[in-house]
Amino acid sequence: MASKPPFCLAHPQDIPADLALGEPLLSRDYLLDGELRTWTGAMQEVHAPVFVEGSKDPERQLLGSCPAHAPSTGQEALTAACTAWDQGLGDWPNLPPEARMACVEDFCLRMNAKRTEIVRLMIWEICKSRKESEQEFDRTIEYIEDTLCELRRMLSEDSHTVKASRIDAQIGHSPLGVVLCMGPFNFPLNETLATLIPALLMGNTAVVKLPRIGRMLFFPLMDCFHKAFPRGVVNILSGGIETVTPAMTSGKVDVLAFIGTSRAAQAMHALHPHPNRLRCVLGLEAKNAAIILPDADLVEVVAEILRGAFGFNGQRCTAIKLIFVARSIADAFLERFCAAVAGLKIGLPWEQGVNITPLPEPGKVQFLDALRADALAKGARELTPNGGPMSARPDETFFAPSVLYPVTPHMRLFREEQFGPIAPVAVFDEPTEVLRAIAASDYGQQASVFGSDPVQLADLSQRLRNLVSRVNINCKCQRGPDELPFTARRDSAVGTLSVRDGLLAFSLPTLAVVRDKPTSKPVLQALDDLRAMP
Ligand code: G3H
Question: Atom 4, ligand 1: which residue's CA is nearest?
Answer without folding.
Answer: 479
